[in-house]
């Protein structure tokens, strides 16, 4: 996938796609002599190594072969008229929600601060690991530095301390939440 290569011009993209910035719907425009339906959502869904699903679309170049891009990159250019940033973050973590209000310029740091819990997590809290004596160590990385929060005897208190420390440093409320409990827990934190 040529994710970070330059997209065709705004005019060429506009000739191929219809984008609804409010809903995030990206549809192929019907071509002459084509059986492709206009109402069909463009592209197909792929899953990243981290388990997040994204939509990819085939983009045709005026001179040359067609290439595959993430739909959120095409949506960005259709909405702004500018080449998309190197990384785009989905604010709600749903890689299929391409509403423009859900997309933001996402540096690697911003994306990392908006990630849900790794499937390899054993404590149930990001940044909380067991240590000798039945205690819990709270430590995480932020801006290339290791942040030590403390040691706790109670797992839930350790998890709450980790969450508060991350939010103070600009992490989102959804950072570190398990995928299966994500919406319920985000709602309870607000």
From TrEMBL:
Domain annotation HNH nuclease: ranges: 70-108
Pfam families, alphabetically?
Answer: HNH_3
**Domain of life, per the record?**
Bacteria
**What InterPro entries does the record point to?**
His-Me_finger_sf (IPR044925), HNH_nuc (IPR003615)
Signal sequence annotation: none
Full protein name: HNH nuclease domain-containing protein
């Amino acid at each position: 996938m040529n994710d970070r290569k330059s997209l065709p011009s705004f005019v060429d993209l506009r000739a191929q796609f219809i984008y609804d910035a409010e809903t995030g719907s990206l549809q192929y425009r019907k071509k002459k002599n084509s059986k492709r339906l206009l109402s069909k959502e463009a592209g197909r869904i792929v899953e990243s190594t981290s388990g997040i699903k994204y939509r990819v679309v085939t983009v045709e170049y005026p001179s040359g072969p067609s290439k595959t891009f993430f739909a959120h990159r095409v949506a960005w250019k259709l909405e702004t008229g500018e080449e998309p940033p190197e990384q785009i973050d989905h604010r709600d973590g749903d890689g299929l929600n391409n509403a423009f209000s859900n997309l933001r310029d996402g540096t690697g740091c911003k994306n990392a601060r908006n990630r849900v819990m790794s499937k390899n997590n054993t404590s149930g809290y990001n940044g909380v690991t067991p240590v000798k004596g039945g205690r819990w160590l709270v430590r995480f990385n932020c801006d290339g530095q290791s942040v030590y929060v403390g040691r706790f005897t109670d797992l839930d208190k350790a998890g709450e301390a980790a969450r508060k420390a991350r939010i103070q440093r600009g992490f989102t409320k959804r950072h570190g939440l398990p995928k299966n409990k994500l919406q319920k827990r985000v709602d309870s934190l607000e």
